[in-house]
Amino acid sequence: MTGAALERLRKSYLETHDRSEPYAPEVPMPQTWPEDLQDRSRRNSIRLFENVGIAREDQEARAANWRNNFQFFNAPALAILCQDRTLTEWSIMDLGTFGGYLMLSAEQHGIQSVPAFSSVAYPKLLRAELDIPEHLLIRTGILLGYAEEDHPYNRHVSEREPLEHLVHFKQ
């Protein structure tokens, strides 16, 4: 989605977010996270806020920063990935592979991308704007555009778990 349709969606998302309406993604969010993932996420958030110059106690700046999510970071394009509701959870692997290849293909063409929870936070708005039928489950969204290389967000590198902690090889 691009152009006028994306601008309408951006406007309706911002209005909905600004009214503090609860997020209602069709894929449930985890209620708890494993401690190591939560710790790493917290460390990454602290570093990101430091990089963009937002003090931890500055709630107003943090709220304004969060609001950027619902403007889709001004990306000029948004891809919404859906899955037929009759498929099993196994199909999420196919959709994830497709999403990854979409992002790699975009990069090959000089277009940057980022998966974004915020893009599917209000599925009723998506369905209305894109005429997404009810038999499709809205899974995720991918923002597409051209990164501002000098923006602090784009200089932030998230902490990653070492590969040897994630993949085990046995001979």
Automatic annotation (TrEMBL):
Residues 17-36 are annotated as: Disordered. InterPro entries: Nitroreductase-like. Gene3D superfamilies: NADH Oxidase (3.40.109.10). It comes from the Bacteria. Signal peptide: none annotated. Keywords: Flavoprotein, FMN, Oxidoreductase. GO terms for molecular function: oxidoreductase activity. Its cofactor is FMN. Belongs to the nitroreductase family. PANTHER family: NAD(P)H NITROREDUCTASE YDGI-RELATED, NITROREDUCTASE. This is Uncharacterized protein. It comes from Paenibacillus stellifer.
